[in-house]
Amino acid sequence: MKYSSKGLIFSLFISLIFTFDSYAQQQRPNIIVFLVDDMGWQDTSVPFWTETTPLNKRYHTPNMERLAKEGMKFTNAYATPVCTPSRISMLTGMNAAHHKVTNWTSPQNNVSSDNDDEQFLPAKWNYSGLSPKADVPNTIYATPFPQLLKDAGYFTIHVGKAHWASIGTVGASPYNLGFMVNIGGHAAGHPQSYLAQDFYGNKPGKNTLQSVPDLEEYYGTETFLTEALTLEALKTLEAPIRNKQPFYLNMAHYAIHSPIQADERFYQKYIDAGLPPVEAKYASLIEGMDKSLGDIMDYLKAEKAEQNTVIIFMSDNGGLSLVPPRAGIAHTQNLPLKAGKGSVNEGGIREPMIVKWPGVVKPSAVASQYVIIEDFFPTILEMAGLKSYKTQQETDGRSFVPVLKNAGFKDDQRALYWHTPNKWVPQDGPGINYKSAIRQGDWKLIYNMRDGSTELYNLKDDIGEQKNQTDAHPEKVRALATKLGIQLKAWDAPMPLVKQSGKAVAMPGQAGN
Amino acid sequence: MKYSSKGLIFSLFISLIFTFDSYAQQQRPNIIVFLVDDMGWQDTSVPFWTETTPLNKRYHTPNMERLAKEGMKFTNAYATPVCTPSRISMLTGMNAAHHKVTNWTSPQNNVSSDNDDEQFLPAKWNYSGLSPKADVPNTIYATPFPQLLKDAGYFTIHVGKAHWASIGTVGASPYNLGFMVNIGGHAAGHPQSYLAQDFYGNKPGKNTLQSVPDLEEYYGTETFLTEALTLEALKTLEAPIRNKQPFYLNMAHYAIHSPIQADERFYQKYIDAGLPPVEAKYASLIEGMDKSLGDIMDYLKAEKAEQNTVIIFMSDNGGLSLVPPRAGIAHTQNLPLKAGKGSVNEGGIREPMIVKWPGVVKPSAVASQYVIIEDFFPTILEMAGLKSYKTQQETDGRSFVPVLKNAGFKDDQRALYWHTPNKWVPQDGPGINYKSAIRQGDWKLIYNMRDGSTELYNLKDDIGEQKNQTDAHPEKVRALATKLGIQLKAWDAPMPLVKQSGKAVAMPGQAGN
């Protein structure tokens, strides 16, 4: 719109349009996705299960409690078993089996992070990650939602872990994924160090691809990475709030991913509580992250932006349950859930999710409708008022705005899918390596690519996936396996190749299974 | 302004105000400072002297020629002898003797870059650089103009070399200096490498404090640093242009600072022209930088932002004249000017400056009025329409908008000042180490701190500073030395200490000189 050299009447007319347009624009909410890395469903004092667990008592997350009080807790929220697939599903609205980035991307270009296997040759997955441009080898070419928000006038900010694509590819830079600001995000999936004393991994001669960029002002101070990223994020909000430009902030903490280092601000109290050092460090990473959430909430309040800002709290996969580095018995770190990061069992995929949306979501609401990480794409665009937009990809996610508006919303016909045709770690574990899964209603089926076997669980009574009902409900197994197979086929999901035959592993529900 | 739940009439009234306000806002020009590092006055095919020199014939800068055709060439534009002082003078509007960052800042905190000297102990200068916050040791606490632009609604972007302060201090981050976006800028003053094949210095285990951040998408490609920064800069302009938000872009190339590496896109032609390899590399760095300027001009034209965008081309100090790394005879690389980077002689401080301001500056204009780098501060704020603003510092620069509006503008009473109470390199050279200088009209006086001696030149007839007129014009020497001394005293300019006496070197024009 231009106003130059027009008469007053025309100007008045235009100004009316402009005013209402401005009004509409100003009403568009700010949106913050507060994405934690590797945080388990129970790594919080907020109880997400029907009862308060020992883990809920162990961890202190007062700001998550505050957020849950002001918003809606999702007790059945899902991501994928590892980080890059979740992050790409979120940005593209595609299921991981569809975008084919089914494992974490190596920061190095054209290097698959898959481990070698005796039985299988690797599946053809997109191991270089997400690309906003065509014809980049081993990437999914798709339109990320921050680009759509940016095009619609949002001020789009990424702070923290990116990990959407490998170095040497266009997706390595958040600036190519629709973000107007990037602080600290690049091709790596974890920090070399959380410590400013270590220059976050940038000490001369000591760098790796995990050295965190952009934070030189803190070098040599005692500023923990989580705190530094928070301070940086708050700085970026100043201008859009003052300019009344709606913003999208992707606040993507490196915490609580390994290396499990002590956040000294909180470490001692967990030692005093009797935790072994590594678990005290883990707990300190959680509480440091929680403080960041509180600082952001406080800032919004102080800046009078609280009432017009959506906050979506989420984790990208389950809590790490490998021992070491964790203490205790492997795969018990997310109890009552089975296993952890890397697994299609609940411990690997169920997430602590909370959404605050003043004026829309009722305080202290609890939703049991299952949702999944690719749902963020249409939800966020709907929140921002984008009704029609063009994307390179066909999206799979569904907006959960109806759930936000009605905590009782129920759809138990929808099916959710997980797909890991990869060898994430050298040793298989519960739900770990070469597994697919489907959930519909309370039923969940896991498909094991190694031998075509299945596990069937009813999550309503058996959230811990302890009672395999495959033999008791063959018709349910058949139905879910067929549905899973049809969907994976429709997405042309990558499958590993059997070394002996050179052929792809059969999809679930196919003849032979 | 808020528009919610108001009646139509009030809304109309408000909308009128808002419209005119918007109109005014949209008229505010975009401003680009295209700042080259270490580029000499003659490192271009644009003749800045009264005649075309052999150096003008050597270098190819077609886009600078184009810019000069569309704007105003300043034949008497000055910076300081080295980079950080210039960059801080530009951002703060203060003379270097006043802000006391009189030498380049080490990327390491609390480390002076001064060399040891037999005669002198170091002056107390602000060797940690610029700080936007109080009480940071060894820094100048000042308000940078990008902060004022940001506060006034500009979208402020920094791309490339920052070098305003040391690691571990708040000024190390452009995000603290009023920039809303920073790509590639940090505490270092040069790149470890211009080559994407070297990851711009970020190869694992090979990093230094000069490793360039933020450019992982180019790693392993053939994208020269100059090109990568240009591509990044253009991306940042997309949103503000579409949103009609005025922007300030600080396009601060690392080129043409050492390491003198070949920009392969242009290298061979200079070899073919018979230049020795190092000089062919140097020329290729220049032409690569010039291509960047052209790409930005092309982009603005394509985006229809050309007519509302000011471009200010500038260098931060004179061309390097040390041999090695340069070829030939030392201190002849900026002929007809004497010496080069580090010197208060013209070769160290006179810069190729061009300003394009459509609708204000006449095409192919030439201004001979002398201006200096601290003048950028008030000039840019005036261009942006900022009439009153608060700064922490008292500023010294003068707006050159009157010159832009009238190429014939003349003020030969104003005095310009340079002050280097530092030992920049281990060996003194012409105008290098422990020198101050003043220019008023055509007269220039250089004060040598080592022995209190002076050199007097008349630049009108003696641009090469070959004919010392100290003996011929004692009254001019006395007047200029006094003026210089009074000003340095008023600024409390740092002076080196004489080892023997422990006392500060006398200011020029004082008893004893």
From TrEMBL, chains A, B:
Positions of the Sulfatase N-terminal domain: 29-385
Ranges in coiled-coil conformation: none
PROSITE patterns (UniProt xref): SULFATASE_1
Required cofactor names: Ca(2+)
Source taxon at top rank: Bacteria
Family named by the database record: Belongs to the sulfatase family.
Keywords assigned: Calcium, Hydrolase, Metal-binding, Signal
A GO term for molecular function: arylsulfatase activity
Lineage: Bacteria, Pseudomonadati, Bacteroidota, Sphingobacteriia, Sphingobacteriales
Originating species: Pedobacter caeni
InterPro entries: Alkaline_phosphatase_core_sf (IPR017850), Sulfatase (IPR050738), Sulfatase_CS (IPR024607), Sulfatase_N (IPR000917)
Pfam families per the UniProt record, alphabetical: Sulfatase (PF00884)
Identification of the protein by name: Arylsulfatase A
